[in-house]
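To close the chapter, one final illustration. This time we ask the reader to focus less on the individual chains and more on the assembly as a whole: which components sit near each other, and how the overall shape emerges from the parts.
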Amino acid sequence: MSEQTLKRVDLIFGEYSNEKYKVLATTLERTNEEILKDILESGLRGRGGAGFPTAMKWKYTAETPGDEKYVVCNADEGEPGTFKDREILLRVPRKVFSGMAICGRVIGAKKGLMYLRGEYKFMVPELMKELAIYHEHAKMLGLDFPIEIRMGSGAYICGEESALFESMEGGRGEPRNKPPYPTTSGFMKKPTVINNVETFVNVLMIMRLGPDQYKQLGTTDSRGSKVFSVSGDTPIPGIYELELGMPLDRFVDEFGDGDTKAVQVGGASGFCVPRKKFKDTVIGFEGVPTGGSMMIFNSSRSMYNVLHNYLEFFEEESCGQCTPCRVGCQQLLKGIVAVKKGEKKAVYLDQLMKLSESMKITAKCGLGQSVANSFSSIVNNFKEEMIY
Amino acid sequence: MTDCKSLIQELADKYGRERASLLPILQGVVARNNYLSDTCMTDIAKELDLSAAQVYGTATFYSFLDTEPRGEYVIRVCKTITCDMHGKKTIIQTLEDMLKIKVGETTPNKRFTLLETNCLGWCHEGPAMLINDTPYSGLTPEKVHDIISEYVNKK
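The assembled structure is written out below.
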């Protein structure tokens, strides 16, 4: 399957250094403090979507006492419209393993685990070959940090970090209460750093370039580049590495088909931005954040169908553990169907909106909390399509 | 189909008998037998010293761990938004016509099961489907025809 790649920024997918695992080797010669300082200065924030400062996550975990710690790479990308982690793992796996190994050294972990979604099982043979090369080099560097691959089995919720730990421990992928956070109690209830695939690559790039050069990219709140997964009504779907902090109208000029009505930024759990707001919307942590998913809809698309599709997705993928999410997703879906059929009056949408707001504050994890993002942004901006 | 007991032994020797070994073992059984039977789940519970309910609870949580008999080839067609926009319905129709089964069913010769699934991560090349572990994207009715014919003629 061929990929179209427009290389605006060439950080993540850029070529390897001429010697295998060279950046890892030079980084390991530095002290943990120096490494952490560079990551902190770079302003790197997690690339899975939530945007937690990476240096803080590592620092807290490093400071937590304990002999047994873990580094986990979250490769369970399941957000609709996201497929960048697969490309990163297929094209630059060594950068991912290097980032994990650096993290292991900094926090004092003896083992790394990668949780790969079941839908990507076809990649395992290739990744195992690469892992063998990694282990060879780790041995030469005197680094005791083996990396293992664990597979998911088709559950979106397992991308939520605590659900992912539950899954790796052999249980149902049901999120845990927080706190405690993974920095003190993660995999096997031990201090754990869990980062997205792309975050680990960013760490390696900061090590290679230095924080000053890395900081040249992006804006004050969103440093660096980001790998975007572009799909929907676009003549050029695919993976693109772009600077963070760009206005949405520029993105649409580049990727839209000339008839773009809305862009869903951040997948089904993200926000739907209508045409009239393109100009004032910035893609980044200061505006609309995204784990990389950019889905473009043109004027031939019914936004009712789009929302219906998302709600079906959430209803099926809700783990069912907490009532707000389990019942809320069902009721939102039933509700919009009833309004569309005329069984409920249009004002019922206001009630559904309140329900989604309640889910935002009462659901146990990010899944239930973020349903309101797409729900309210679609219903508010395309109300007439919900009714007629 | 491999005998459950010996398969479980083999998988437990490989992955261990900890609670954390449960998922790889369940995945291993499904990879070989296409599904987890009740007896098989009870046997896993015994081997790992867990209750049958714990094994059943974990197994039924995951959409790829089937607990009812499936065909040799499980086809999962992505139904999430971009695949849906780009013609998922026609793909399902083509598969239903070719295999003469509906979504959720298995062919009488136990070779194919047709299912729908959530986002497979091929949004830029939709519609997409998985046949067991192999992804196929950029599907058209013609392409589906060729792919399925190939599977039909296997062995």
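Chain B has two domains: 4-61, 73-152. Chain B has a mean pLDDT of 96. With these observations in hand, you are ready for the problems at the end of the chapter.
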